């Protein structure tokens, strides 16, 4: 890094905290602005709605920005977890992701993807129905096969958020529990107005506050509309069943069935917990019907799942850019960066997004958008 910079990061979700943590560790002076820093997260926070499924090597595309970001993030998450754990922080991470095929076309797609990725050296595995029957508790009987990725997996967003914040603060990051109300250029620097009236000045401002960030730059002439897509999730606790006397999970990691994630969490109290999620509901209002369908996990018809007790349910908004690919990684003006709109992949793409922001700040004369 040539010269340490002063940076104001707006938004303390997983992307904003990742950016703040990386910049602080690189020697920059970072301030983090978010109204929920001194209390519980906002009810609609996208990071807290996420289940943290890291779907990188089974991503359906094999080139382009999305592919590159996913592969780099998987690599960085492993490095970050090791670095954070070396500092005494704990992040719940479980490797392994199994995609189940519910019909013939999906099974064929998995076969083609397996062949393509095998040729590139990715260690994906095709599972047949006999291998799926070894799962304990058993999975959906209608599954025709599966594609298993040992390098993908699931990371607990809450433990990641806590570790990133604690370590960044230990290295000197300063938090401001305020809501950003306006952004403007002032005497050659950027400044952000807080709800309480205070103005925070900085040569660099990074906006990672979802749709709120897009609203802040609209008066500056930057049209970056985003729409909220609501997601609901459940934490369940299993009861003993005749065909499974837990708590020993024998699953290879997170499992995806008909687009819905089931994440075993034997690390949680009792060893019988799992997460289900998340729904895709345009707008801001949660649908009871969508929640009921989520509870059935794509009509998997599993007795052990039917008998599970709901421990908690939660929801949040994932900002999706309108008519633009997610995420938005752009330097809008010198010193003003947008790193937001990650939609369903905020947890997965946070490290690569943070790395891109750090590169822009360290080399401000270079190109400003991530293509």
Task: Describe the model.
There is one protein chain. The chain has 371 residues and is of the alpha/beta class. The protein has ten helices and 19 strands. The strands form three sheets. Strands 3, 4, 5, 6, 12, 13, 14, 15 and 17 form a nine-stranded mixed β-sheet that branches. Strand 14 and strand 15 form a beta hairpin. The radius of gyration is 21 Å and the shape is globular. It starts with 5 loop residues before the first strand and ends in a 9-residue tail after the last helix.
List keywords for this structure.
alpha/beta; 371 residues; 19 strands; disordered C terminus; globular; single chain; 29% helix; 10 helices; 9-stranded mixed β-sheet
Please describe the topology of this protein.
Blueprint: E1 6-10, H1 14-25, E2 29-33, H2 46-49, E3 53-54, H3 64-86, E4 93-101, H4 104-119, E5 125-127, H5 129-132, E6 145-155, H6 157-170, E7 174-176, E8 180-186, E9 189-194, E10 199-202, E11 204-207, H7 211-217, E12 226-237, E13 254-257, E14 260-265, E15 273-277, E16 281-282, H8 288-295, H9 303-306, E17 309-321, E18 328-333, E19 336-340, H10 346-362
Parallel strand pairs: 1-2, 1-11, 2-7, 4-13, 11-19
Antiparallel strand pairs: 3-6, 4-6, 5-6, 8-9, 9-10, 12-15, 12-17, 13-14, 14-15, 18-19
